[in-house]
Amino acid sequence: MRIAVTGREGQVARALVERGRALGVEVVPLGRPALDLMAPATILPALAAAAPQVIVNAAAYTAVDKAESEPELAHAVNEAGAGAVAAAAARLGVPVVHLSTDYVFDGHIGRPHREEDAPSPVNVYGRSKLAGEAAVAAAAPDHAILRVAWVYSPVGRNFVRTMLTLAENRDVVRVVADQRGTPTSALAIADGIIAVARNLVARPGEVALRGLFHMSASGEATWADLAEAVFAESAMRGGPSARVERIGTADYPTPAARAPDTRLDCSRIAAVHGVALPPWRVSLAGVVARCLAAEEGKWRRA
Ligand SMILES: NC(=O)C1=CN([C@@H]2O[C@H](COP(=O)(O)OP(=O)(O)OC[C@H]3O[C@@H](n4cnc5c(N)ncnc54)[C@H](O)[C@@H]3O)[C@@H](O)[C@H]2O)C=CC1
């Protein structure tokens, strides 16, 4: 199978390249300037040249706080750009797998969210991603939209790497303890995407495989739980660690509002696609180990 993925340098795109290699799937990563979601004319030619059997749209405007002051840009990439990728997939006659987010929810439902629960984003980023889901669905009937959550990986900008960096210079790190969700490794997401892509290619026209799916790791955590788990894994391997001071969202003001509980119920993708991502702590251990190995000498106190 041959997959074209947008957002070449992103966490999920890079994980997809890595996992594709391991799983015998050819993954062609596409990025700017050849494929720019802000430049619609680049999209169809770049995707067509890759001759994919499936297109994965992992490119996005992901700066949640900055989006508050750049709503047009966030919507241009996450709504119009996503729609244009889906339209190109439809033109090429191949399925599109589009990534969305748990941040489409306002987080007040008090249980893991199902696909049929009404979205109600509390910030610009969430609204732009929700609009992107609609744009993809309208442009390409042959789609799977996967809502993922709290993404981290051994590379790129993410919470896990930020915590390790902070612990190099601090004994105590203040972390929000009243937002719940599910930290999910980009590598696990890549495995899920490949499984879904294989199903879409193998069973064209099977309606149940198409549509909206929640796909996070299993289990749940607060950001403070995640930070503590990162430091425990790191300390065990001789890497940096710090004490976590648990604070409230109100003590850590950010430009974009955050939802208190965006846990996702992933039973639909398990039933329909046979995809169940590992518990978050299992994936986290491997990623922390890789972060430390990548920084060998700097972090390892031998
Ligand atoms: N990072 C997270 O915590 C979460 C991410 N998601 C979603 O998962 C998907 C993948 O996210 P990550 O890999 O973490 O994001 P990332 O921020 O690591 O990568 C996004 C990539 O998109 C590229 N990009 C931005 N604007 C572009 C444009 N105009 N044209 C072409 N490429 C452009 C960036 O250069 C970057 O390489 C996105 O759809 C994101 O909204 C969902 C939930 C949480």
From TrEMBL:
Q: Which reaction does it catalyse?
A: dTDP-beta-L-rhamnose + NADP(+) = dTDP-4-dehydro-beta-L-rhamnose + NADPH + H(+)
GO function term, MF aspect, one: dTDP-4-dehydrorhamnose reductase activity
* Keywords, comma-separated and alphabetical: NADP, Oxidoreductase
Q: Which InterPro entries match?
A: dTDP_dehydrorham_reduct, NAD(P)-bd_dom_sf, RmlD-like-bd
Q: Identify the EC number(s).
A: 1.1.1.133
Q: Which CDD domains match?
A: dTDP_HR_like_SDR_e
| Cofactors | Mg(2+)
Which segments constitute the RmlD-like substrate binding domain?
1-290
Q: What class of enzyme is it?
A: oxidoreductase
* Cofactor annotation comment: Binds 1 Mg(2+) ion per monomer.
Q: Which pathway?
A: Carbohydrate biosynthesis; dTDP-L-rhamnose biosynthesis
Family named by the database record: Belongs to the dTDP-4-dehydrorhamnose reductase family.
Function text = Catalyzes the reduction of dTDP-6-deoxy-L-lyxo-4-hexulose to yield dTDP-L-rhamnose.
Q: What is this protein called?
A: dTDP-4-dehydrorhamnose reductase
Organism (species): Chelatococcus daeguensis
Lineage runs: Bacteria, Pseudomonadati, Pseudomonadota, Alphaproteobacteria, Hyphomicrobiales
